[in-house]
Amino acid sequence: MKKLTLYICCAIGLSMATSCKKFLDEKPISVSTDLTFWKNESDADKGVAGGYALLRKTLNKANGLAFYAYGDLPTDEFSSANLYRFDNIARINWGIPVAAAETWDAMMQMRRYDTHYSAIDQANRCIKFIPAIGNDKFSSVEAKNNLLGEAYFLRAFNYFYMSRIWGDVPLTIESGTITEAVDIPRSKAADVLAQCIKDVNTAIDLLSWNYANPNNRAVRANKGAAYALLAHIYAWQGDYQNCSSTIDKITAQNFYQYVSRDNYLSIYKGKSVEGIFEIAQSDENEGNVGNIANFTLKSPYLTTNTGNAVFALNVPTLTSLFSVANDKRYTNAFALTNSTDPICIKYSNITYVNGQNVITPVAHNNIIIFRLADIKLLKAESLAALNQFTQARTVLNEVRTQAGIGAWVGTDANLFEGIIDERGRELFLEGHRFYDLVRLGKKTGIMRFGAEKMNLSDFNAGKYYWPIDPALMNINKKLTQTPFWSSKI
Fold first, then answer.
1. Which residues partner with 313 through β-bridges?
2. Mean pLDDT, residues 92-112 taken together
3. Topology of domain 2-217+465-485, CATH
4. How far apart are CA 489 and CA 479, in angstroms?
């Protein structure tokens, strides 16, 4: 079916256009050039860089918001999102009809996973062709191994990300099968995650801790990024024993340090000592025009918006999460907190481009996927789940100390929920909250999304998994709809 090949190519073009003049500008390798392209280290590096570029595109689809629209918008962080389809996304009203021709529609883009498969196919090519390049064509065997390890990491990351969103997804680890339009049914989430774990462990064996080019810190995968991904996979599975032991391998290395919370916003500019894995878009010649800043900031932090923020923060949630005075994460990452429309300023590294008498804000903030505080709190969560309460409190309080607040006060019975709350404070608007609340719901039955968004009955029926857009099912006849949404879309 040639139409699927065209569909995949068009889907890539639908992703948000961004300006990035470094390794993320590398283009994915096409099937037609595979046999002549893969000759040396430079070619392999370009192939892997193409995988990162495609990952960046998919996390920036839907007006530059996909990463946050999946991970933050449908939670208690926001009270409203009155623009385009985002209010429906925030209210977990994901089954609304969208005309097939409206491929620009944010809801349609959020329900489609084709951009992930473009990134996966690129990783599959790298995994297929890099081993066949002679070792003498690389500066070292370590350099070759790192590039191959990055490809395995990228494939695992994309599949894990999709499985958290849709649960069961089509699984293919052969290059070319997607663009050749093979009809592939959804594989069970357990099988997808098993493949992720296999790929990540392969990546861990291949990757180094250190970067040959220090400028690649955090924006390309190293061994620490692979361990962080593996820890999150285990946490999502509820395998907290393996999650805990995996995190120990990160912290034992002392490769990452906390950024001073007095300089908290430097984390979001990217490549900090705390960053483990990030999507590069912060350098002077990078940046996004469509971005989270446009929707969450206002004057004086975004001069082009003199009204309220487009997405309104949930004030009761802020009041509840930041009930302890002088929390540096609150005082340094939020502004206008005495108003009815406070804002989060994590993504306020803005420059302005004046073109044709139109002033356009460009955000220069990396997408922070994993960082040290995230992994430390995931360790605390694991320990609490394993009833190792004293150890869990120690790790939890280490993070709180960085924020300038005292030890957590609460019972062992409430400790798991307390750690999820701490993640809410530390990782506010960093793409984690929705998945954290899903893990909270699975572990305790506590629903924190908002009563109007998802109750326990809907949660147990799998409402937290997204539907597949009907347009995909018209192309792949072996696809079935996500069970909860099968009669609602």
1. 78
2. 96
3. 1.25.40
4. 14
